[in-house]
């Protein structure tokens, strides 16, 4: 959707925006009036940064200074301090207290807010005094805190030395354990190699023993015996070596187990001492902060006491009203688009063109009650212009498509069909055409009122053969126009309109007239669909602001189902755009200029002619 479309929506739904805006502004005004003003009092405290070092080198402890300032901030809002403040003020409900540490400074700002400006200033100053006096009372504990800090320092040093000794012992044991493990690994490999060699010699010895018994020749038996003796000697030597190696292995294994146990014990000792050291270090850190706090108690000063405020800090009525205006405007715009989205009615010609499956051939402005009897006689040239444009489109289409019977219908009642049919017929009659208007709306007939003629006999009487064509046609009912009223009938009109003679009657009438305009009920009535099949062209009317998109789509689908020839749509009740040059009222006729009696010497023809030329109004023609 283009920007112009959004602006059109806001223009249509301006009442939603205005209602929400007024309600929001009114609510904001009431709220700003009912909420009492709040006063704010501020007091500033200075916390000097602790110093360390000696006479030759001084260091500012900024880390501990930050901790001190945070500690003071927490003390300021602690329950004990606030209860003491409440008792000194003699009140049951304390004002709002806020504590702010000013960045990159040594200042703490205490803010007290209350509806009573005097109470706010008094509470701020009393709170500052309580904090300063609290720190002054704690000075007696400074010596004990210093002694405690010294003891903690000594204990930290002892723990540090013990941890260093335990780590050195652990490193020694770890080195010894590594050597023992290496020696055991060497012995283990040697024993395994000797055992493998022993098994090999044992197998060879058994084989030699078998050959000594099984060999037949004496020299072979001798060789087997000698081999057996040699293998026996080697086996004995291996057994001796294995025994020595096993003895060494048994000697080193207990050392390995003992070393592993000592390593585990030493490791646990180191972990325990480190944990104790960390706990003691945290205690030392807290004690150091407490000592610095005590030492710094002399340096906690009130540098800017609170004064009684004269101007409220909130809520600002103008701010509340401005915020309410912005919120109301936003909510109003959102609701306007929401209402537009939920509203299925057609409000603009653009919407109608988008929904229609045919071209828009007419835009009829909203008619005043006086203009509905004869729209072409209206003083509003926008009305005349609309019907002249519609007449031009109809004449062009009639010549191009050989159209004589035009049926006017709509999706629902009250959309301006009868007035549009009457005015269109009157505009066509000005072209010296033979025009016939037929009122087929037997339930709610209106054309007889516009033509100011009788309702009976009419179309239904012609179809029911109660009268013939000549009897029902009212000749020259209005200048240049004939008229067939709806007539009166007591039976169901649908039975009458289903008569096959209806098509024959329309054919006979087309031979007599150049244009036949049929005013029908809405498409909710069944006989309208019957007439739509017989007409040369169908025009569907849509009233802006009333006709819904659903009803319009249903109407088009209904006409397409009966193969009706839709030649165009007409928008009715279109708001007149005063920006267009031709949309204006006719200039009122001026009364004739009455000339005063002029002196003889001024009564000359040239002067009178010049004045007359400038004074005569320009007349507009009612015909294009």
Description:
There is one protein chain. With 624 residues, the protein is an alpha/beta fold. It folds into three domains: 1-35 and 319-343, no CATH class; 144-298, Helix Hairpins (Orthogonal Bundle); 349-574, 3-Layer(aba) Sandwich (Rossmann fold), CATH 3.40.50.300. It has 19 helices and 14 strands. It has helices at 3-12, 14-34, 62-76, 79-89, 117-137, 142-214, 218-295, 317-342, 349-355, 381-401, 417-429, 447-451, 459-463, 469-472, 493-497, 501-512, 526-534, 549-561, 605-615; strands at 39-47, 51-53, 58-60, 96-101, 107-114, 300-304, 360-365, 405-410, 435-439, 474-478, 481-484, 515-519, 537-543, 566-574. An eight-stranded mixed β-sheet has the order 7-14-13-8-12-9-11-10, sandwiched between helices. The longest helix has 78 residues, at 218-295. The protein is elongated. The protein starts with a helix and ends in a 9-residue tail after the last helix.
Spell out the key features of this protein.
14 strands; 3 domains; 19 helices; disordered C terminus; alpha/beta; 4-stranded antiparallel beta sheet; 8-stranded mixed beta sheet; 624 residues
Give the SSE layout:
Layout: H1 3-12, H2 14-34, E1 39-47, E2 51-53, E3 58-60, H3 62-76, H4 79-89, E4 96-101, E5 107-114, H5 117-137, H6 142-214, H7 218-295, E6 300-304, H8 317-342, H9 349-355, E7 360-365, H10 381-401, E8 405-410, H11 417-429, E9 435-439, H12 447-451, H13 459-463, H14 469-472, E10 474-478, E11 481-484, H15 493-497, H16 501-512, E12 515-519, H17 526-534, E13 537-543, H18 549-561, E14 566-574, H19 605-615
Parallel strand pairs: 7-14, 8-12, 8-13, 9-11, 9-12, 13-14
Antiparallel strand pairs: 1-5, 1-6, 2-3, 4-5, 10-11
């Amino acid at each position: 959707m283009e920007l112009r479309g959004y602006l059109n929506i806001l223009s249509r739904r301006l009442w939603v925006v205005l209602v929400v805006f007024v309600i929001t502004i009114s609510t904001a005004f009431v709220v700003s009036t009912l909420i009492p003003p709040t006063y704010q009092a501020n007091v500033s405290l200075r916390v000097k940064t602790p110093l360390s070092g000696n006479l030759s080198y001084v260091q500012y402890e900024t880390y501990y200074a930050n901790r001190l300032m945070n500690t003071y901030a927490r003390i300021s809002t602690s329950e004990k301090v606030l209860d003491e403040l409440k008792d000194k003020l003699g009140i049951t409900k304390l004002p709002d207290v806020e504590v702010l540490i000013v960045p990159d400074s040594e200042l703490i700002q205490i803010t007290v807010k209350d509806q009573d400006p005097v109470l706010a200033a008094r509470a701020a100053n009393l709170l500052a005094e309580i904090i300063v006096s609290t720190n002054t009372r704690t000075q007696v504990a400074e010596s004990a805190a210093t002694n405690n800090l010294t003891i903690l320092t000594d204990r930290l040093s002892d723990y540090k030395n013990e941890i260093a000794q335990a780590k050195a012992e652990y490193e020694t044991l770890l080195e010894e354990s590594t050597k023992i493990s290496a020696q055991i690994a060497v012995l283990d490999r040697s024993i395994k190699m000797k055992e493998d060699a022993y098994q090999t010699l044992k197998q060879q010895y058994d084989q030699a023993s078998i050959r000594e018994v099984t060999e037949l020749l004496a020299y072979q038996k001798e060789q087997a015996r000698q081999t057996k003796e040699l293998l026996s000697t080697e086996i004995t030597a291996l057994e001796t070596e294995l025994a020595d190696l096993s003895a060494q292995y048994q000697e080193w294994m207990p050392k390995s187990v003992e070393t592993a146990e000592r390593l585990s014990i030493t490791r646990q000792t180191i972990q325990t001492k480190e944990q104790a050291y960390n706990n003691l270090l945290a205690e030392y850190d807290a004690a150091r902060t407490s000592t610095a706090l005590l030492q710094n108690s002399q340096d906690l000063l009130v540098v800017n006491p609170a004064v009684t405020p004269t101007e409220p800090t909130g809520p600002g009525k103008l701010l509340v009203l401005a915020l309410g205006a912005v919120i109301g405007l936003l909510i109003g715009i959102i609701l306007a688009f929401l209402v537009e989205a939920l509203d299925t009615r057609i409000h603009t010609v653009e919407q109608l063109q988008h929904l229609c499956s045919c071209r828009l051939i007419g835009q009829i402005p909203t008619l005043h009650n006086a203009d509905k009897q004869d729209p072409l006689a209206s003083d509003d040239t926008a009305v005349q212009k609309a019907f002249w444009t519609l007449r031009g489109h109809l004449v062009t289409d009639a010549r191009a498509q050989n159209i004589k019977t035009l049926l006017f219908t709509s999706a629902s009642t009250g959309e301006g069909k009868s007035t549009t049919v009457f005015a269109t017929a009157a505009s066509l009659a000005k072209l010296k055409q033979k025009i016939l208007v037929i009122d087929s709306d037997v339930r709610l007939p209106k054309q007889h009122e516009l033509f100011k003629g009788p309702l009976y006999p009419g179309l239904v009487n012609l179809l029911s053969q109660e009268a013939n064509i000549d009897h029902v046609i009212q000749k020259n009912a209005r200048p240049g126009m004939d008229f067939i009223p709806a007539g009166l009938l007591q039976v169901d009109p649908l039975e009458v309109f289903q008569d096959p003679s209806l098509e024959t009657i329309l054919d006979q009438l087309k031979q007599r007239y150049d244009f036949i305009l049929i005013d029908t009920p809405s498409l909710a009535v069944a006989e309208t669909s019957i007439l739509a099949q017989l007409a040369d062209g169908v025009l569907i009317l849509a009233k802006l602001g009333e006709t819904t998109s659903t009803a319009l789509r249903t109407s088009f689908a209904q006409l397409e189902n009966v193969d009706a020839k839709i030649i165009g749509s007409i928008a009715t009740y279109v708001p007149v755009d005063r920006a267009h040059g031709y949309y204006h009222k006719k200039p009122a006729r001026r009364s004739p200029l009455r000339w005063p009696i002029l002196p003889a010497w001024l009564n000359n023809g040239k002067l009178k002619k010049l004045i007359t030329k400038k004074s005569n109004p320009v007349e507009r023609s009612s015909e294009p």
